[in-house]
Amino acid sequence: MPSTCCSTPSSLSVALKMPRLTLLGHQPLALQALEALLVVEFFGYWSHRALHEVPALWRLHKVHHSSEQLDWLAAARVHPMESVWNRMITLLPLFLLGFSPGITAFFGPFFAIYPIFLHANVRWGYGRLGYAIASPAFHRWHHSSDREALNKNYSGLLPVFDFLFGTAHFPGNTRPVRYGLDGERAPAGFWQQLKWPFRASAAS
User: Fold this and answer.
1) Can you give the pLDDT at residue 119?
2) In angstroms, rounded to a whole number, what is the distance separating the alpha carbons of residues 143 and 149?
3) Rounded alpha-carbon distances, angstroms, from residue 190 to 5, 68, 80, 84, 186
């Protein structure tokens, strides 16, 4: 009699059998890279926007926004469940659309590393290029608790989606006054912040 464990497909096998498109994977790598960048940024924009606008997701994401001083360490101040959400929403479409595995392997680490620089304690805005590529100056407004900057600048690399969907805030002659949450502070300690999104008081 066959073993039950052997007759059950692994989660990896199930994932590999998910329906995918294959046409995209046969295109030149340069074209795939451009398309994949737009796909990742599009889904990344809406994933990030949902983290702000859906209350249950915001309770996870506000752990990241609780940093009152912005530097590269703030990029790592993310609730583990938010990390799972982001990777699933941004990278799974690349797999399902059938992009070359090499494209997915490149963009995964790239979009993990670039946010570290994006949160750095520098004011670089890239000049006019800063309206095409997200800069630390652009992202600092996203972390500002100034009222006019709340829920703005969701894009991780291409601000075009913020300008397209009306969430861009990038005034050239001013800088954020303060960072962190508007009228709220995170509890002290790693474990307290890990449990914070699930406490009854966090539902407000």
Assistant:
1) 93
2) 8
3) 38, 16, 12, 18, 10
